Amino acid sequence: MSAQTGWSREEMAALAALDIPDGTYVNLGIGIPELVARHVPAGRELVFHTENGLLGVGPPPAPGDEDADLINAGKKPVTAVPGAAFFHHADSFAMIRGGHIGVCVLGAMQVSAAGDLANWSTGEPDAIPAVGGAMDLVAGVGRVLVLMEHVTRRGEPKLVDRCTLPLTGVGVVSRVYTNLAVVDITPRGLVARGLAPGVPLDAVQARTGAPLIDGREGEKP
Amino acid sequence: MIDKRCSSAHEAVAPVHDGATVMIGGFGSAGSPVELIHALIDHGARGLTVISNNAGCGRVGLAALIEAGRVERIICSFPRSADAEVFAAAFRAGRVALDLVPQGTLAERVRAGGAAIPAFYTPVSAGTPLGEGKERRSFGGRECVLEHALTADFALVRAERADRYGNLVYRKTARNFGPVMCMASRVAIVQARRIVEPGEIDPEVVVTPGVFVQRVVEVRDPADESALVREGRRYP
């Protein structure tokens, strides 16, 4: 670990998993958020939802056991745990939009100090636009957690004062886990709740596009 | 006597006319009614508006329908993927218009269409580029946008089992948009792996009641669209 890299993706996913209470219905986004399922603490039961119609998503199947009719929202083969349920798309999104899913974990391109999220479009003019279920998730799910690298590949902050990319939702993000820090979105702005080992706050602030309040010592916003 | 069975996929899609609006079930390849789409390509109807979650993969199924130049407009939530070059090329060349809709809004607009609810308010997409130009209203201090129902002349849907009444059960996550698309279309055309005798589907587990279905055809061994894409197959 270094000030440059901090936590690994697996460590970020484990931190997020630790924050999800026993018994929660959880939707995991495509990519890094999928790792959260591997880090559910012992003794805790989470039910994973995939918006294409399954509650009770299990681990990936063994090679050779894939079923083309049993996939997740990323269109990858999955399994269904005992006690799982299948349902159609309107029911699935009623779960999301109706507030029945407790937590969703998403990736992001930018998160603002006000909790605005940009994660569906690079805004490039020749890009093929695609939104999927991201806007539904952030509008309907009670607690929206974001897992992302702290800066872009070009070193630009992804935690920003105002998003410059097209928005997915306004004021929707609760907490962000990056490779450098765990940051809450509060009415006062960004509050750092934890820092990766060996990473000083000023190094995180230097890589953040909005003021960071030090909230590491039980400070409540 | 009610008998909605057709003897072939070609017979099943025969009523589709030029300029029709066609809902196509499936999420990626799961539930994609590949045989019905290929029969529609053979059938030749053009100027179609397609409502579907994705915009096809590889050069089979919906991608092949687009490549054949039959689709004028597509209403969908996620037309981008590693294997979606056919749509991307048609979109960039201006041959296919795109209405991008959040996935839950798409499902709900289709369900509303099936229940003759002309429009509804939702907070989804409010304050984002996809909410621009929509009628707005605040409920309980929350900004919402007005979304209009979607209906279609036809739906193409894949199910697991059907009977001659059109009662349907699906298989796993291949169910996805099938039930609401059957509700929202004037003529729902369904391919099922098996057509069984009335009563063989337990009434307690019927997912789509037959009243929502007009035509069924048995396709015993449906192609797995993702396998066709991996193999680089194309249609025709």
Please supply descriptive tags for the structure shown above.
heterodimer, A: 221 residues, alpha/beta, Glutaconate Coenzyme A-transferase, ten-stranded mixed sheet, three-stranded mixed sheet, globular, B: 236 residues, nine-stranded mixed sheet, three-stranded antiparallel sheet, 7 helices, 23% helix
In short:
The complex is a heterodimer of chains A (221) and B (236). Chain A has 221 residues and is of the alpha/beta class. Chain A is 14% helix and 26% strand.
Question: What can you see in these coordinates?
Answer:
The complex is a heterodimer of chains A (221) and B (236). Chain A has 221 residues and is α/β, with parallel strands linked by helices. Chain A has one domain (9-214): Glutaconate Coenzyme A-transferase (3-Layer(aba) Sandwich), CATH 3.40.1080. Chain A has helices spanning 9-18, 89-97, 134-140, 201-206; strands at 25-28, 47-50, 54-58, 79-86, 103-106, 110-112, 117-118, 143-147, 159-160, 173-177, 181-186, 189-195, 212-214. In chain A, helix 2 packs across helix 3 (134-140). The longest helix of chain A has 10 residues, at 9-18. Chain B has 236 residues and is an alpha/beta fold. Chain B has a single domain (5-118, 149-220), classed as Glutaconate Coenzyme A-transferase (3-Layer(aba) Sandwich), CATH 3.40.1080. The longest helix of chain B has 12 residues, at 103-114. In chain B, helix 2 runs parallel beside helix 3 (61-67). Chain B has 7 helices and 12 strands. The model of chain B has no long low-confidence stretch (mean pLDDT 97).
